[in-house]
């Protein structure tokens, strides 16, 4: 009688965001990465893209990133060598796109459309998927997954700008209270700060019965 198959460990999920110091994902009139990306950060992005992540993204992020990937593949003149390689490399990465407005089949290679409830779909992916999962942008999706207690790692790269007048896409609006335990920190190019945490969603302030 053969040995029983080993039980597959559940996949881990990371929310991965870039953010201004005052909590915005972008700013009107500013360039991408607020114009502050540097060689150390771009090299790290290249290393990260080589890892075997499966990316989770919403419709808006899908449209934006697919457009940038296609542009980089057609003409890299608008991107640095590191940016172009990172963007074109996304075509080979498995991606799940959560949307009720897009239609299958999706044009970006290795993209699977999910039209049902994102939280339940990701819960099932965590149970059955091999390898790590990571969000790609997608602020609303990341918020929903964190609130549902599905996020194992919460990683930020903080850019040293305050965009109070021009900031767009406020990241923390609608978040629950969350306790964060730091597991990694790093500085890129002497100005960008990576912070990675294990998040615990709270049902009330610390010290109360609802926490």
From TrEMBL:
Q: A GO BP term, please?
A: riboflavin biosynthetic process
Pfam families of this UniProt entry?
Answer: RibD_C
Which sequence ranges are marked TM in the entry?
Answer: none
Which Gene3D superfamilies does the UniProt record give? Dihydrofolate Reductase, subunit A (3.40.430.10)
Q: Which InterPro entries match?
A: DHFR-like_dom_sf, RibDG_C, Riboflavin_Biosynth_HTPR
Q: Which GO terms describe its molecular function?
A: 5-amino-6-(5-phosphoribosylamino)uracil reductase activity
Positions in coiled-coil regions: none
Query: Which residues belong to any copy of the Bacterial bifunctional deaminase-reductase C-terminal domain?
Result: 12-193
Supply the PANTHER family for this chain.
BIFUNCTIONAL DEAMINASE-REDUCTASE DOMAIN PROTEIN, DIHYDROFOLATE REDUCTASE FAMILY PROTEIN (AFU_ORTHOLOGUE AFUA_8G06820)
Q: What is this protein called?
A: Dihydrofolate reductase
> Could you tell me which species this protein originates from?
Pseudarthrobacter niigatensis
